[in-house]
Design brief:
The complex is a heterotrimer of chains A (347), B (398) and C (451). Helix content of chain A is 38%, strand content 15%. Chain A has 347 residues and is an alpha/beta fold. Chain A has a five-stranded mixed beta sheet with strand order 10-9-11-8-12, with helices on both faces. Chain A has a three-stranded parallel beta sheet with strand order 4-1-5. In chain B, helix 3 packs antiparallel against helix 10. In chain B, strand 1 and strand 2 form a beta hairpin. With 398 residues, chain B is an alpha+beta fold.
Chain lengths: 347, 398, 451
């Protein structure tokens, strides 16, 4: 009977293997996150301003603050986040297979990504655009003068494709030199290995700040691409989509309403306007559809500040972690001051 | 040994386990079944997951437009070409860089290996430390070092160096520029001439060796071979009216235009690969030479051979038997390690296909499979050569 | 007859002439130099070139590492030695050094890594002590049993039933090993013999002698199990692992798991069963013929697709699995080499003794083959340690990944050369130490076989 029992064992093994392939029952992302007790937020490999590793091992940056804001909205605690720093090759896979709850990294919102990779971009929290940086002494004033130039670029991003497109459209015959590592790229540029660097302008600004002689380099005025950056979530969970999207809106709306990290408690006690009262959960119950506590927006502002504060700290020069990009009049300013940052009403 | 007749009966089921022949078949079926089940499980998961993510498997994407430029390739690649062409560009670049590295590694490795056995203490020590330092630091760090420490520091195009004072061999931090040959109509005659002269030289050399074996008289023939090798093609070349011109690199705008060039990144990868692996070759050569018994050296000396001849005619040929097999697996490593060029942006197969193309198209499985297929083909080819060689030295042994 | 022995008082006394001093140019420093450095024109020229080469490198290095050095600064801007130039900013390396070693591991929990390292050193140290017996068991257990304890120390959090059992086992084993070593050093005999004597079983039947050992081990195990049952540490998710620590974890797990898998694969490759052989050969050749970087890419992009829905594999786990498969394939070839070196006579003798396949492998062939393989295994470990630098390319924070992070911090932006140099030195020291040890081992193990 040994043969039969062994055959049975083999069959059992096969059966066990094939049964585990049965799909699990779908559960809402919010429930999963709450059950787990912390948020899994995917960021990229260190990039100045957006996400930086500090020497004490913590992450800071504007995209990191979005993660913290969402954790604050759910748990009231901005530290209940596990940051997953993932290289750009696998960023979308890691979101699609459920490893990350959301993606808060400099991923450009494009039609292809929004429709064919199983993910949805929620909204834009930073408007970027690709530009060029050249040494001042080269005398170049416009990208159209880069005919036949060698340009350093990082691999694996839309930057590389934009450069090729731009070169083709304007018949510039640009020779790209592709790098994996931004340090190597920067050094090549500094030693004259290429005539210009191309990257998102925010990246150029932060790189420039790290050069031995920042004054000797200039960022050309042209912006050759649109790079709307914002958090993305898996397709198919509209509640989670709303939570992420409205967290960003809450940051923008708070700035518009003048709510800051410092005065949010005061504002919650004596709301200056019905809008603020609704937002901070004092009046009406607009939070219900999100499935969050009514103080969710209060917690967000309390923990990370409003959009302007985050920008100042990490993209501006309000702290030593900032990379010093001006905001006034740029696309990233509030709509009331001529920018594109606009939140739908909290009503 | 006592032969015990084992009971064999088809009806008794327990015999399947106890009878050696059935047991072996049973185990094989079990192993195969398990592996097959695991494979089926993985494939099933993959298909489910891909369907959930709205992706379709298939190789159709290969014909789509790649859309990105490649910094260096000997082929006529343009961004409008397909991913399939990118694959081919990657393969060619990988083969070029590993081919050149293999040749240079072998030569340099032999030199260092022989230097390590030098009687000069200082040279021996330098060679020993060369080997230690190179073998004990990661290749990735070495590639970055050669790039940042050496080749990125070359002068800018406007201050280019003309190597050996020649205005056609130009070195700057954009690369090493040299002229492009443009062949005329009748150049094929010269090419045929070269072929003939090589064949003639080989035949002549064989004849001279045969003569020496028969008569014992050593006739220096190297200059005659030189005449055959150079004279005939040169004569044809001159008679047909020099059907060859050179396209020189000229500084235009930012860069040199015209001619051929190799990137500084390529130079660094080459240097790093060559130097790193030469340390291993050096050790193999040293071990190989040490494996030849000292009696051989003494016998050669007592026959009156000079030390350099002893090395060349007695020691090295015997050492080769111990050197070649590990050397060939080292060559395999060179091909594999050339993929580290990704760190400094040399467009090899892994860089252009597995990195950029994968990122742009998202077809992970197909691309990974294609890249692995290439490396497997190369390495199986190399091991096939190794097997042929091993058979050959086995035949000559006794 | 000038050389005739001199006679004195009828006795023949040998009185040697005082030997002449050696020619002045063959002894001492000068002689040594003349013989070793300036032996002929060719040798002299190469010596001069060698000296110039060393001098050039040394001066360049001295200038970079010391003359331009800035030792104290709190940001890279303070490392400027002129408005348009940075000095060699060792301050940055110092500032980040803890992170280079431990990655993002919380400062308050770093003692756990140190403790694991200390336990490992203590566990391995007996291998160097001449009086300790049963070194093979001590060494193997350090590789096979210790990882569970280390794994728990690193990860923390709640233990499931399996980990609870293994952690207690691991701890018991460690304590046992330490007691064994202490007894060995004092009494010159192993723990087992000592227990037998202490319990008075020495005079009993041989078959009974194992009982006191088994009983005592079980008692020790349960005591440890209940003592540590409530012991729990804070969970540190693998996401926070990094630096040299992560490098060592990846390569350590890689080599420890490669050994058993490699042995199975190697035996499979030599098996008589065609299906088993073909499968093993296919696996070995597949993983040996492709570069590690492609396997890592495969792991990070494809493993997530292989898993059933709902099962999530983080990046680190994928990488570790990939490294294990990769090094197992190489280990299989190392083991095969070791097996091939064992003469046929050994196999035949084992068979003639009536040993089964597994008995002859386990008792006769493997012990001899393993001895031959040890230098190669250390070699593979060095190779793996160097190869793990590649995980930084796919975005893990190993030593190199950590170094890339430094240069992206706005306060230290662009700081790159100094950390890279530090990493190179760390790797060099670690790998050189290991390779020297393996050479020493090779000589020592080979000593018995040399004629």
């Amino acid at each position: 009977m040994k043969k039969l029992s062994l055959l049975g064992l083999g069959a059992g093994l096969l059966a066990a293997l094939s049964f585990t392939a049965a799909p699990a029952v779908a559960e809402s992302t919010l429930d999963i996150v709450k059950k787990r007790g912390h948020l899994r937020c995917q960021i990229g490999t260190p990039s100045p301003g957006f996400y930086n590793l500090k020497s004490d091992g913590t992450w800071v940056g504007s995209d990191v603050s979005i993660c913290r804001a969402i954790a604050a909205a759910i748990f009231g605690d901005p530290n209940k986040v596990e940051f997953q720093s993932v290289s750009s090759t696998v960023r979308f896979t890691a979101l699609a297979n459920g490893e990350s709850d959301l993606l808060s990294r400099t991923a450009t919102w494009t039609l292809f990504r929004d429709t064919q990779l199983g993910l949805s971009f929620t909204t834009v929290n930073f408007y970027d655009g690709q530009g060029f940086m050249v040494p001042k002494d080269s005398g170049i004033k416009s990208t159209l003068e880069l005919k036949g130039a060698t340009v350093c670029v990082l691999t694996g991003t839309t930057t590389e494709l934009n450069l090729t497109d731009y070169s083709r459209v304007h018949k510039l015959d640009i020779q790209p030199v592709v790098f994996q590592d931004s340090n190597v790229r920067n050094e090549t540029y500094l030693k004259g290995g290429c005539d210009a660097i191309t990257n998102d302008k925010s990246g150029l600004a932060s790189n420039k700040a790290g050069f031995p002689d920042p004054g000797a380099h200039t960022i050309l005025p042209e912006t050759i691409s649109k790079e709307p950056l914002g958090p993305a979530v898996r397709k198919g969970d509209s509640q989670w989509f709303d939570i992420v999207r409205w967290t960003v809106f809450a940051l923008i709306a708070a700035e518009e309403a003048g709510i800051t990290q410092a005065n949010v408690d005061e504002m919650a006690k004596n709301p200056p306007s019905p809008e603020v009262a609704r937002m901070l959960g004092v009046e009406a119950e607009v939070h219900k559809g999100l499935g969050l506590d009514k103080s969710w927006a209060h917690w967000i502002i309390k923990s990370v500040g409003n959009y302007g504060e985050i920008y100042g700290k990490y993209m501006g020069s309000a702290s030593s972690d900032g990379i010093g990009i001006g905001r006034a009049g740029s696309q990233n300013d509030l709509w009331t001051r001529g920018g594109l940052m606009y939140s739908p009403p909290f009503r | 040994m006592a032969v015990v007749e084992r009971p064999r009966s088809g009806s008794d089921l327990s015999s399947v386990i106890n009878d050696e022949r059935y047991r072996s078949i049973f185990y094989q079926i079990l192993v195969f079944g398990t592996v097959f089940a695991i494979a089926a499980f993985l494939v099933n998961n993959t298909l489910t997951n891909m369907a959930a993510q709205g992706k379709a498997a298939g190789f159709d994407f290969l014909l789509g437009t790649a859309g990105f430029a490649i910094a260096w390739t000997p082929l006529d690649y343009k961004p409008v070409d397909s991913y399939l062409f990118v694959y081919w560009v990657g393969i060619v670049n990988t083969l070029i860089i590993s081919g050149i590295s293999i040749v240079l590694t072998t030569i340099l490795g032999f030199v260092i290996g022989i230097l390590r056995l030098s009687k000069n203490w200082l040279i021996g020590q330098i060679a020993a430390w060369y080997v230690e330092v190179l073998r004990n630091t990661p290749l990735l760090l070495q590639i970055i070092f050669w790039y940042l420490g050496a080749f990125a520091n070359l002068p800018r195009p406007k201050q280019s160096v003309e190597l050996f004072g020649a205005d056609w061999l130009i070195l700057n931090n954009r690369g090493l520029y040299f002229p492009n040959a443009e062949f005329g109509e009748l150049f094929w005659l010269t090419a045929v001439g070269m072929l003939i002269s090589v064949v003639a030289a080989i035949w002549y050399n064989k004849r001279a060796i045969k003569q020496q074996l028969e008569t014992g008289v050593y006739v220096p023939i190297w200059w005659k071979i030189l005449v055959i090798l150079i004279g005939l093609p040169l004569a044809i070349f001159l008679v047909t009216g020099m059907p060859l011109s050179w396209e020189l690199p000229v500084l235009k705008g930012f860069n040199f235009q015209g001619g051929t060039f190799i990137l500084p990144a390529m130079c660094s990868v080459l240097v790093a690969l060559v130097i790193y692996h030469s340390a291993y070759v050096a050790e193999m050569v040293r071990a190989g030479i040490m494996s030849v018994s000292h009696g051989q050296t003494e016998a050669a000396y007592s026959l009156g051979l000079r030390p350099s001849w002893t090395m060349r005619l007695v020691i090295i040929p015997q050492a080769m038997r111990a050197i070649i097999p590990p050397m060939i697996s080292l060559w395999m490593n060179v091909v594999k390690n050339s993929s580290l060029a990704i760190a400094i942006g040399f467009p090899d197969l892994v860089n252009v296909f597995m990195q950029t193309s994968l990122n742009q198209s998202g077809h992970a499985i197909e691309i990974v499979a294609m890249v692995m297929l290439f490396y497997m083909t190369v390495s199986l080819t190399i091991s096939a050569c190794l097997n042929v060689y091993n058979k050959k030295i086995l035949l000559t042994e006794r | 007859m000038a050389d005739a022995p001199m006679t004195s008082g009828g006795l023949l006394v040998f009185k040697p002439k005082p030997s002449l001093p050696p020619p002045p140019a063959t002894t001492g420093v000068i002689g040594w130099m003349r013989f070793n450095l300036f032996d002929g024109i060719y040798s002299s020229v190469t010596t001069v070139i060698g000296v110039l080469l060393i001098g050039y490198i040394a001066i360049g290095f001295y200038e970079w590492a010391f003359v331009r050095a800035v030792w104290e600064a709190s940001s890279r801007n303070e490392c400027r030695i002129s408005p348009t130039e940075f000095g060699t900013c060792w301050a940055g390396v110092e500032f980040w050094f803890t992170r280079f070693i431990y990655g993002r591991y919380p400062d308050a929990e770093i003692w756990r890594i140190d403790l694991a390292a200390l336990i490992f050193v203590l566990w391995m140290a007996p291998l160097w002590l001449p009086r300790v017996t049963a070194k093979v068991i001590v060494g193997l257990s350090a590789v096979m049993v210790f990882p569970f304890l280390a794994g728990y120390l690193f990860l923390g959090g709640e233990r499931n039933w399996f980990m609870a059992i293994m952690v207690a086992l691991s701890l018991t084993w460690f304590i046992g090993t330490m007691v064994h070593v202490a007894i060995c050093l004092v009494t010159n005999q192993g723990l087992g013999r000592w227990i037998i004597q202490a319990t008075g079983f020495a005079s009993r039947d041989d078959r009974l002698q194992k009982y006191p050992i088994i009983i005592l081990s079980l008692i020790a195990y349960f005591v440890v199990y209940f003592l540590v049952a409530d012991w729990q540490t804070v969970e540190v998710v693998p996401n926070q692992w990094g630096g040299l620590f992560l490098t060592l974890v990846i390569s350590g797990v890689g080599i420890a798991s490669a050994l058993p898998i490699g042995i199975v694969l190697a035996l499979g490759r030599r098996s008589q069963m065609p299906v088993v052989r073909v499968l093993c050969v296919a696996f070995i050749e597949l993983f040996r013929s492709v570069p590690l970087i492609t396997i890592l890419f495969m792991a990070t992009t494809m493993f997530p697709l292989f898993l059933p829905k709902g099962v999530v594999f983080n990046n680190l786990a994928s990488v570790i699995v990939a490294v294990c498969l990769f090094s197992a394939a190489y280990m299989a070839e190392t083991v095969r080499g070791g097996l091939q070196a064992i003469s046929r006579g050994q196999y035949e003798a084992a068979e003639a003794m009536g040993l089964s396949y597994w008995q002859s492998m386990g008792l006769i062939v493997m012990p001899q083959a393993l001895k031959l393989m040890i230098p190669n295994i250390v070699g593979s470990f060095i190779g793996l340690l160097k190869d793990t630098t590649l995980v930084s390319i796919i975005g893990l924070y190993d030593l190199l990944g950590m170094i890339n992070a430094v240069s992206q911090d706005p306060q230290w932006i662009g700081l790159h050369h100094e950390p890279l140099f530090t990493a190179a030195v760390l790797y060099f020291v670690a790998c050189l130490a290991m390779s020297k040890y393996s050479q020493h081992l090779e000589r020592k193990l080979g000593a018995g076989d040399r004629r």
